[in-house]
């Protein structure tokens, strides 16, 4: 289980996470910090990308440099809150393709219902990073991963800012092949299924709709 969940304790990540937790942090600063954290997390989760030697000519001499090789990359935000993490990751890997998964919670069953899904045509050949700021009950995340696998995705990582064990366990049960990357594991959910202490509704705080 410990190898399945990766918690980033980098000081810059933890510092920025502390600021977005504050209730008085406004939408502009919140968006900027979410993007910055996503960028730092993307740096960490791409440490194992394969490299290949390439011969080039510098202004001085010929030499051999490193270039990325192997699997192509993709980012898949779970709408709408996941959109807030995309630009930060793209700033590090601008050639990555971006898919989208749209879900809403059925008011009666409380289960996630898919209303939109669009992935790169070569999704099965890409290392796909699913992004959503919060992993609470895990229903939306698990449903998004299921939707991606139905469309051919094979190599998936899940990236969030804050998680709780309930959500982690659900993904682990339904998708044991998908590792989870997060900045913090909070104690649990409140009576409204919000992560506590968390940072409130990520979508509302990103887009100023609170």
UniProtKB/TrEMBL annotation:
* Pathway stated in the Swiss-Prot or TrEMBL entry: Pyrimidine metabolism; UMP biosynthesis via salvage pathway; UMP from uracil: step 1/1
Query: What is the superkingdom listed in this entry's lineage?
Result: Bacteria
Q: Does the entry feature the keyword ATP-binding, yes or no? A: no
Cofactor-binding details, from the entry:
Binds 1 Mg(2+) ion per subunit. The magnesium is bound as Mg-PRPP.
Where 5-phospho-alpha-D-ribose 1-diphosphate is bound, by residue? Answer: 80, 105, 132-140, 201
Signal sequence interval, chain numbering: none
The UniProt entry's GO CC annotations, sorted and at most eight, read: cytoplasm
GO biological-process terms attached to the record:
UMP salvage; uracil salvage
Role according to the record: Catalyzes the conversion of uracil and 5-phospho-alpha-D-ribose 1-diphosphate (PRPP) to UMP and diphosphate.
- Name of protein: Uracil phosphoribosyltransferase
Organism the protein comes from? Halolactibacillus alkaliphilus
Query: What's the encoding gene here?
Result: upp_1
């Amino acid at each position: 289980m410990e190898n399945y969940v990766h918690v980033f304790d980098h000081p810059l990540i933890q510092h920025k996470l502390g600021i977005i937790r504050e209730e008085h942090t406004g939408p502009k600063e919140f968006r900027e910090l979410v993007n910055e954290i996503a960028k730092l997390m993307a740096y960490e989760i791409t440490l194992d990308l394969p490299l290949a030697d390439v011969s080039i000519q510098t202004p001085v001499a010929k030499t051999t440099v490193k270039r990325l090789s192997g699997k192509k990359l993709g980012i898949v935000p779970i709408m709408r809150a996941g959109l807030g993490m995309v630009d930060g990751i793209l700033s590090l890997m601008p050639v990555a393709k971006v898919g989208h998964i749209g879900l809403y919670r059925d008011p009666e069953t409380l289960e996630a219902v898919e209303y939109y899904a669009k992935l790169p045509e070569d999704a099965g050949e890409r290392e796909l990073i699913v992004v959503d700021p919060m992993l609470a009950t895990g229903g939306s995340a698990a449903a998004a991963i299921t939707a991606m696998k139905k469309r051919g995705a094979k190599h998936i990582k899940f990236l969030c800012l804050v998680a709780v064990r309930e959500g982690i366990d659900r993904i682990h049960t339904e998708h044991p092949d998908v590792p989870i990357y997060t900045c913090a594991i909070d104690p649990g959910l409140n009576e409204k299924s919000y992560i506590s202490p968390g940072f409130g509704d990520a979508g509302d705080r990103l887009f100023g709709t609170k």
